Amino acid sequence: MSPPMSSPPAPSIPESELVERFVRAAGPGGQNVNKVATAVELRFDVAGSPSLSEPVRARLLAKRDRRMTGEGVLVINAQRFRTQDRNRQDARERLAAFIATGLVAPKKRVATRPTRGSVERRLGAKRERSTVKRRRSAKAWD
């Protein structure tokens, strides 16, 4: 029995490639929300990052993710928690999860043909449906 396949190790992203901006969070929270900039906006340039290998970069850029800008910059907003530190941690965890999705190459689809039985069943069901609809036509009411 072969050992289970593990995904390749996640690339370590240096601090210099991450841009963090602290802003005031939206939503309920009263006076604290209005005074303290606890929300984090984390930006990571996927298109220009030297830390990512070319296949991983291509897979991440090909994703249809609304957090990705047209220039290939991933913008993650974290404001779930009350503290700046916890929101920073949350943003980095979400960045790691996003990068992890690009590490695994999708399996190639193996083209197969439908079996003769499945084709016959499908055509038989179409024939039955056709006769049911034909019997409903206005001519039957005359």
TrEMBL record:
Point to the regions of Basic residues compositional bias: 132-142
Query: Prokaryotic-type class I peptide chain release factors domain: from which residue to which, for each copy?
Result: 24-40
**Which GO molecular function annotation, any one, does this entry have?**
peptidyl-tRNA hydrolase activity
User: What is the uppermost EC class here?
Assistant: hydrolase
| E.C. number | 3.1.1.29
Pfam families named in the record: RF-1 (PF00472)
| Amino acid composition bias (Basic and acidic residues), ranges on this chain | 118-131
Question: Could you tell me the keywords of this UniProt record?
Answer: Hydrolase
Q: Which InterPro entries match?
A: Pep_chain_release_fac_I (IPR000352)
Q: Where is this region: Disordered?
A: 109-142
Q: Kindly provide the name given to this protein in its UniProt entry.
A: Aminoacyl-tRNA hydrolase
